[in-house]
Amino acid sequence: MKVSFYGHVRQYENLKSEIDANMNEVLMSGNYVQGPMLKAFEEQSKAYFGTEYAIGVGNGTDALWLSLMALGIGPGDEVITNANTFFATAEAIWIAGAKVVLVDCLADTKCIDPAKIEAAITPKTKAIMPVHLYGQCADMPAIWDIAEKHGLDVVEDNAQGIDGAGDTFKQGDRSATVTTSFIIQKNLGCFGDGGMVFTNRADVDAKIRKLRNHGSDARNVHSFGFNSRLDDLQAGVLSAKMKHITALTDQRIALAKRYDAALKEVKTFKLPVARPGYRHVYHLYAIEVNDATKRDAMVEFLQAAGIDAKTHYSIVIHKQAGFPWGKECEIAGSLENAEHNAQTCVSLPMFPELTHEEQDYVIAKVLEWDAA
Ligand SMILES: *Cc1c(COP(=O)(O)O)cnc(C)c1O
């Protein structure tokens, strides 16, 4: 049996009539950029997310650096983030011109360690950018307390955590912005690139709307900005899918529970740790092997059995050869948990359309590996 890592086409088939209707509406309207569908999707998004403003932008990376820029963060400033995240989080800080300060994650949830954040704060620190890694919210109440104590902005990188929440909080409660990515492999994905910034601040909303559109908020009037808009066609796709996001997330959670139950007795790896009461949306179902020297062999074993297991992310940011070191990037303290995670993580197939038959096959092969 072949088990893929994503179910993009299945999801399209399931929601085809609604997606096609929206795409057709856009195509026939003749308005493809900053048109009515984008506006409607922004209204729908802010109502869904519970913020005052939602701004559609070109992709999730732009959503991050546009947030920093709108907050006035740039050269000479420092931004603290996870060492274990998709590269784009750090890249966005670098694009904004600020210094990337990487801190370690917690050993269990792999989310950023609030104690390490506080230790990394200097007079130059302007913002904290926690990542809701693998779909689980970071410990936001602790992070917000630190930010408020030191007068820092919080920009939540929610590219992996749409529809997630904490036990006593929701995303964005005390943050300057929450950003997300709509690239297809994310939990809410379109058919190309897309991103969004959520905020409760009118000034941030106005700045990002200008910055995304050549610094313009009136015809022929410009200040220097960029071109980073969410296309109306993509907005139409996302609008149709957003109506189903709770159900799609619930399917992920149900599949995670099936993995948890079937794999609870394994000896060679640990299961993902979900904080009690949090809505972990399982962007990834990432296990942690006990013996790092056997990790690649496990992935190869599963691949050979037709199962598209992957690693996220097997090279931590500070070990990426291409990253500009020194002036622009800094390590704050030991990053041992992040480094350990890079060597021990394996992501099993996880998407809402994964069938029980396919999942049972994955479970059987994983148990076979565990027993060998
Ligand atoms: C995907 C991702 C991004 C970047 O999103 P793009 O839309 O690809 O630019 C940023 N941060 C994290 C944590 C991501 O997973």
Total count of helical runs of at least 4 residues: 12
The amount of beta strand, in percent, is: 5-15%
**CATH fold annotation of the largest domain:** Aspartate Aminotransferase, domain 2
Radius of gyration: 21 Å
Helix and strand sequence: HHEHEHEHEHEEEHHHEEHEHEH
Describe the strand arrangement of the main beta sheet, using strand numbers: 1-7-6-5-4-2-3-10
Largest sheet: 8 strands, mixed
Give average pLDDT, whole number: 96
Uncertain parts: none
Distance between the termini: 21 Å
CATH A-level architecture of the largest domain? 3-Layer(aba) Sandwich
Oligomeric composition of the shown chains = single chain
CATH class division of the largest domain: Alpha Beta
Please indicate the count of domains: 2
Please count the beta strands (DSSP E, at least 2 residues each). Answer: 11
Taken from the alpha-carbon principal axes, the silhouette is: globular
Helix content: 25-40%
Query: What small molecules does the structure contain?
Result: pyridoxal-5'-phosphate
CATH superfamily of the largest domain: Type I PLP-dependent aspartate aminotransferase-like (Major domain)
Which structural class is indicated by helix and strand composition? Answer: alpha/beta
